[in-house]
Amino acid sequence: MHVSIDLNCDLGEGAGCDAALMPLITSANIACGAHAGDAATMRATVALARAYGVAVGAHPGFADRANFGRVEHTLTAGALHDLVTGQIEALRELGPVRHVKPHGELYNLAARDRAVAEVIAEAVFTCDPSLILFGLAGSELVRAGQARGLRVANEVFADRTYQADGSLTPRARSDALITDEAAAVAQVIRMVREGVVWATDGTSVAVEADTVCLHGDGAHAVAFARRLGAELRAAGIALREWGA
User: Fold this and answer.
1) Structural domains present in the chain
2) Cβ distance 8 to 211 under 8 Å?
3) Using 50, 70 and 90 to split pLDDT, how confident is the model at 243?
4) What is the pTM of this model?
């Protein structure tokens, strides 16, 4: 049974809540200039993370600002490797980086496609074998990272529903998101405490929860992050960056 959990959030993407969210999380996934962000934003977000003692992570995505990295692109293995390493290195120029979490459709693709997952794991390893790779709990990306010898963190989601195979419900479906805060908090506590999540078909699915993703672009992102942190602590679950 976990006694602590990491709370991560995608930041540096222009949502406008970074300063308010940073004190409430333990790991920050910072956009590296492809799907969002630029040198100035990266520098400011890194400085904010350092000020609050939050772990700095690279958040590489497809270079597609028009679609915010949420549309799949077909790349050769070499091009994908360069895409990921280039973004990680751009952030590393600003100081130490502790972890890497792919963004958007790159994340979804790596969760289900072994070949893509292996390229990403190799890219992370090439940059720095000590980097921690964040991936959807139980996914191809987690397995690829482990096989490459990386430390991996199994990621779960507070506000997303799950399918019976442990995958996230596709966003196109009406039941993909959990909009009730109490239900989202309860889901997180169950995943951390019991290692299970209820799928949309009512089945109980085993899940390993090392880090919880908080979306930083919602209308109530800050209020929810504050509530989740408070209720986790009340349940005896400490907030701590994974692997610390």
Assistant:
1) 4-239 (3.20.20.370)
2) yes
3) confident
4) 0.96
